[in-house]
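Dear colleague,

Thank you for sharing your sequence with our group. We've completed the structure prediction you requested, and as agreed, I am returning the results in plain text so they can be pasted directly into your records. Please verify that the sequence below matches your submission; if there's any discrepancy, let me know and we will rerun it promptly.
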Amino acid sequence: MTFSLIIPTLNEAGNIDPLLSGIFSLDTLGNQFEVIIVDDGSTDGTPDKVRQWQKTHDVRLIERRAQPDLTGSILDGTAAARYEVIAVMDADLSHPPDRLAALIQPVVDGTHDITVGSRYIAGGNTINWPFYRRWLSRAGGWLARSICDVNDATSGFFAFRKELIGNITKNARGYKILLELLMTGQGQLRIKEIPISFRDRQHGNSKLSLTHHLAYLLQLITLAGGTVSLHTASRFALVGFLGVFVDVFIFQWMTGHGASLASAHISSFIAAASFNYALNSKWSFRLHHAGHLQWKQFARFLTVGVFAMLLRGAILAWLVHTWDMPAEWAIFPAILTTAMVNYLGSAFYVFPRTEPPVSTDIRWRIASVGVACFVILLRLVYMDVAQLIPDEAYYWQYAQHMALSFFDHPPMVAWLIWLGTALAGQNEFGVRIGAFLCGLIAMAYLFALACNLYDKSTAMRSVLLFVIMPFGFATGLAMTPDAPLIAAWVATLYYMERALLANKSQAWLGIGIAFGLGILSKYTLGLLGIAALVYVILDPVARRWLLRPHPYLAVLVALLLFSPVIIWNMENNWASFLFQTGRVGNTQHEFATHQLLLQIATVLTPVGLVAAVLALRSIALHYREAPRKHLFIAVFTGVPLLVFLAISTFDSLRFHWTSPLWLALIPTMAWMIGQNGISGNIPAQLRTAWRPMITISLLAYAFVLHYVTLGIPGLPYQFLSEHYFWKETTAEVEKIAGEIRQTTGKEPIVVGMSKWSAASALAFYSKAPVLDIQSRNLFGQHAAMYSFWNPIPAPSGRPVLLIGMKQQALESSAATGNFEDKLINTGEIHSRPVYRQDGLLLRTLYYRTAEGYRGNTTP
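Please find the predicted structure tokens below.
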């Protein structure tokens, strides 16, 4: 085989002889190759060692006089090479010479354009490397995988066609030229990884330093389309430093004059951001600015600024309200944290690199990574500062009454909350950490599923679409049964695809576990079992599984996991099963299909609804190209959808019930974004529509979270009077209870006049002395699990305090007959305003007092 082997050197005198001896002793290489050693100014006699080999072997020495640079050395060596196949390896004996033939052959044969000696595929490993070097190498590889599809993109052992070097930019520098090569084909190159055993150097010193690692990060960002460089970063940092003075001065002045935390930080941020934009556009990113105000660019700057501002509000709220840090000090870490959002947003979105152009695929990949990271950060910060909604408080009550199952839901949500609060305490973070982890699990399984069905780029876009859709964002933050359901649903789909399409028998165990955990989360997951049966019946290949034991063992595993629910229902007269089946098909029929379409548009976004319809159409049009794959997607989306459509013709559904069924279709929706020319110009139009939809969705989520924690100046809380701010409301209820206690000398019974919302929220936020909290089952009305937890008490002379989420709840006469005397102040319902600490009105509390409870008299 004919090839040129390039070996960059810098003070490698002790390694030259053993390295070249090992190479020229290999019979597998033949004798039609040359070795080009490019020395970068060694001072230890390395060139003299090479000259000795020049006398007897086809070895050439190039001595560079420029600034030492690994990429520059390889470029110079390639320019001098005689052959069309180029191989590169280090001189430190870390790369095994005996793998050269396997590395070069695919390129020589013409079957591949680039081959990479990989440490991180099956058969590859690293030997005698310290832990920190392994960690840094792995981290570098993972970062690079966002823009390329190679497991070991930081490898220095690779081969390529010489012509590819012409596509590398002239200013390419750094120590990872492989990344530059991988990006030249914009995804069109044929790449193969060869496993190698990498050994740490035995002679000499490593040339890697902190500067090299920073240069690698800058190289990654530049190749991804950002304008990040040490030049722009240093100028941006200086501008940011000056902006901090503006920011802090205004913030401190406003808080010192009684302004709310929200008003102060928003005002100071806007002032500082405007100051920063003026200097950054004219100085930091001057080469990427037209020299005059560009409204499109300025709009992008405002968008990034709003994202950073809303995130900063979360950090401020977290530091001030959770960690009790004074606001005047909390502003500093908040500014530092969000500065990175501003910088990366400016580099990639406001002032992106335009020359050489970056492919649309890479742009979508980077957008996927950026959006996913922002969503994860948003959830992580807000999960501890946003108060629980009543649903979450109700499921927290589950965890306070642990059981095998519960009346209205299986027990998974209770188990997760119990574990989270046991580890993190009885707080919002402890309640929600399970939902946060379920969100990460769902993202990982969706990525893997989309990779199997399509490709990596589609998988990254699938995660992007998932996290910006309302159901995907919410289920990773709010601790409801939907959080584990979504994770289990997509995990079941992943293992279903592995079993039914890839024919992996071991995947059936995964199906059994994922399905069992999913049905422990919510009964809706049973629809996947029906869909699986339909697919097996329709697909001749999958039908063979009916004659094998694996599916039946999976069913057995799922049943074993589901057995706590069965046992609980047996012990409670099948209460949960009867309740769930009775929710559909009651005597009052209602046509609600039109409502179902609105609900789907809500959980998917309007653009998502259009994309879903087009994705189903695309599956039909391209069915013959991959019939089994398209049948899989159609069945696992269509069967649950048909069930909900059928139910909607005679009964209304909850708006979020259809959420998980779209998980099977999201990969196709994401795949369409990367296609051109399908069904006319629709994909291009759809891709255009997704961009503002993604931005609007993220802004909406961040805005709402900021609104409920810190507020938005000028926007009152009139929209949250019923379901939020129970922490402050509970404090007011405790005051009323204290007044009753002081007046009567008796401990009042506090009754939340709703099925479970008011009682649960009051219970979570009640402080010592803990209130005696009941629900409306006290008056014979059904109150979900409260009817099990709190049986009707005996007649009591204690006063009763009735709390309503709204006034109408207290106007009902249902409770009147349960008291010997009429309600005190008959017909009068009291109300009290509920304020935040800074004096902002949050909501109105409605309450009523009574005495002489004589037990439930409702027939």
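Summary note from our side: Residues 295-322 form the longest helix (28 residues).

Kind regards,
the structure core
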